[in-house]
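Tokens as discussed.
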């Protein structure tokens, strides 16, 4: 999801993203109203005139002068990457490094089943959408079938819907604002079917990936799919509703941002900005008022509550407690009931990437994507059994959730969120572990965890015992700390955690900042990319990431734009070791208005799957368009470029021409 959008008001999207709303952590009181455009806008600085631009202390003038030339085609000394860099910029198409192919594999509306109806954007229905690929692909995971690298299941989250780009005839332009017509019941039901996830078999044929539409495990998961609530909060009174007096059965999952694939081959969907789907008012003096305020419920971004009582707080006051969890899907059985695993806590879950600790327990790294919220990890109580898949299927119901405190001296401490320990007692309103998990944020506040600059995806590297934390931005920060060293942090940073003993389950470790993002040629930005990083190689707003099977870090971004950074979002390769550490190179970039999600390398590194999310959601600040973008007047019609087709979020498969390892 985008954040810190300028003033243009798109009815749905900007509300859901809390574009300029307050952070929700009451332990901080952010008041800075300035957004990127005010201080760091490219418009505010001289471009292309190096002599007049102060040079950041970490970037040599020579490096900047060489940017885009010397290193664009060659390897950087000590780098683990040697692809020819893509030129950063903005246009209607996507671009991949020379020598590579970027093929669209699955578009919104494509068939997921052989008998699915053809996509007709002017006549979409809930029934059709339930059989077709959903909207706004975010997390992408690849689960090999029988160990093959050219055949497997692709699992894809569909985070949210952009009505103004999806539906004909619902937008009016008022001034430079996009105003979306009030929802109808049909529209809401299509939106609900376009949310959730897709499981689809794919196979490489003659070097090109294609979906297998009669795959036995193909599946659509939507905002209505029946799910089970498991773990310590399951069945708790605070999770009970009139439709589900047991507090264990819930319909659907929403706003699934990043996710993960477990070592035992299940698909993890993280519920992020769930607050936006709720409307209505809680009954007066309701016991959940403070809980909901801490997570921003009701967000009021969607009209679902008008047609589905469960999204209306006045009718179903407990329903929001049934969202904000991590969902696990057994992809081997398309009839299986997805499980909301409450042991991993309830907050705005960005993702849930996991790896094995030295003793075989499984460690999940979890970001809570809100300004001034926290970094978590979950360590299972049991150990992974590589020989018995069934024995792993409920590992996520027992274990310990920890929250991170990053001290000024470069140490990180993982604080357990365990009922009865420290302040997590009845005195503070926690009667049980269920209460601790339902109000994870408040529990973490009391433990004095470190409020961060919007924790997004976190990727562990089991080989090194390190983890990479994407902190996307926080323009509301007024007080810096060592782990969040910039006030008005418009461009974000990446923290590298090195767990003690190289063991991901360790409760202490060291941390350091791998890079502060933004344009290194503007001193005020304070970016710290290596001097080898070219003018194409730097980025702002890190969001998703991957550590590939060679241990190489890849970072995808959300929020670069013509006015903020003079470039679209994309996928950057980032050196983490040796002399090249902190060097970044642009490998792939998205069309105007899009953000870059995924990325997902196959184990053999011959394919990268990437997700192009919300293309054409923007373009008013791009000289090639310069006006509001919506269904009838789109800033790009990628990937079809067909006047009869709207823009379509899509998953793209990147391969090297002639085959071979990427990067
Ligand atoms: Fe959905 Fe935190 O990005
Ligand atoms: Ca995002
Ligand atoms: Ca994200």
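Sequence:
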């Amino acid at each position: 999801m985008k954040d810190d959008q300028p003033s243009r008001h798109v009815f749905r999207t900007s509300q859901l993203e809390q574009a300029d709303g307050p952070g929700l952590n009451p332990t901080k009181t952010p008041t800075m109203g300035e957004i990127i455009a005010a201080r760091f806008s490219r418009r505010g600085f001289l471009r292309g005139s190096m002599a007049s631009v102060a040079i950041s202390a970490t970037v040599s003038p020579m490096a900047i002068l060489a940017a885009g030339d010397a290193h664009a085609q060659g390897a950087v000394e000590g780098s683990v990457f040697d692809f020819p860099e893509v030129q950063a910029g903005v246009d209607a198409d996507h671009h991949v490094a020379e020598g590579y192919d970027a093929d669209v594999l699955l578009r919104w509306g494509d068939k997921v089943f052989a008998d699915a109806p053809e996509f007709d954007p002017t006549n979409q229905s809930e029934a059709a959408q339930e059989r077709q690929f959903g909207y706004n692909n975010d997390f992408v995971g690849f689960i090999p079938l029988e160990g093959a690298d050219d055949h497997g299941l692709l699992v894809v989250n569909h985070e949210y819907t952009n009505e103004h780009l999806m539906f004909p005839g619902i937008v009016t332009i008022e001034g430079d604002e996009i105003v979306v017509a009030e929802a109808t019941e049909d529209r809401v039901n299509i939106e609900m079917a376009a949310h959730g996830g897709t499981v689809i078999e794919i196979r490489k044929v003659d070097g090109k990936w294609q979906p297998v539409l009669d795959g036995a495990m193909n599946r659509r998961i939507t905002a209505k799919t029946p799910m089970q609530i498991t773990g310590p909060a399951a069945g708790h009174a605070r999770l009970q509703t009139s439709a589900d007096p047991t507090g264990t059965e819930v319909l659907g999952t929403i706003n699934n941002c990043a996710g993960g694939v477990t070592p035992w081959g299940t698909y993890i969907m993280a519920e992020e900005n769930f607050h936006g789907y709720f409307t209505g008012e809680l009954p007066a003096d309701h016991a959940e008022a403070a809980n909901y305020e801490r997570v921003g419920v009701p967000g009021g971004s969607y009209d679902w509550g008008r047609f589905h009582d469960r999204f209306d707080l006045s009718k179903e006051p407990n329903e929001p407690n049934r969202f904000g969890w991590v969902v696990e899907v057994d992809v081997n059985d398309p009839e299986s009931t997805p499980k909301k695993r409450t042991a991993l806590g309830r907050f705005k879950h960005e993702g849930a990437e996991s790896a094995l600790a030295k003793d075989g327990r499984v460690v999940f790294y979890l970001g809570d994507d809100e300004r001034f919220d926290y970094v978590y990890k979950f360590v299972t109580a049991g150990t992974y059994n590589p020989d018995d898949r069934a024995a792993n299927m409920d590992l996520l119901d027992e274990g310990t959730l920890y929250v991170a405190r990053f001290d000024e001296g470069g140490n990180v401490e993982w604080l357990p969120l365990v009922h009865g320990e420290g302040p997590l007692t009845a005195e503070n309103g926690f009667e049980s572990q269920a209460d601790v998990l339902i109000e994870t944020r408040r529990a973490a506040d009391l433990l004095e965890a470190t409020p961060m600059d919007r924790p997004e995806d976190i990727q562990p590297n089991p080989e090194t015992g390190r983890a990479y934390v994407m902190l996307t931005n926080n323009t509301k920060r007024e007080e810096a700390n060592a782990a969040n060293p910039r006030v008005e942090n418009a461009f974000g940073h990446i923290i590298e955690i090195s767990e003690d003993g190289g063991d991901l389950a360790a409760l202490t470790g060291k941390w350091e900042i791998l890079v502060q993002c933004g344009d290194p040629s503007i001193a005020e930005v304070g970016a710290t990319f290596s001097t080898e990083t070219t003018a194409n190689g730097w980025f702002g707003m890190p969001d998703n990431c991957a550590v590939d099977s060679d241990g190489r870090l890849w970072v995808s971004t959300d929020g670069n734009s013509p006015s903020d950074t003079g470039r679209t979002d994309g996928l950057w390769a980032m050196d983490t070791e040796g002399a090249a550490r902190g060097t970044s190179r642009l490998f792939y970039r998205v069309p105007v208005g899009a953000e870059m999600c995924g990325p997902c390398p196959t184990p053999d590194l011959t394919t990268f799957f990437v997700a192009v999310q919300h293309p054409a959601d923007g373009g008013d600040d791009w000289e090639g368009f310069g006006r509001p973008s919506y269904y009838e007047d789109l800033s790009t019609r990628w990937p079809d470029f067909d006047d009869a087709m709207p823009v379509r979020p899509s998953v793209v498969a990147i391969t090297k021409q002639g085959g071979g390892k990427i990067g």
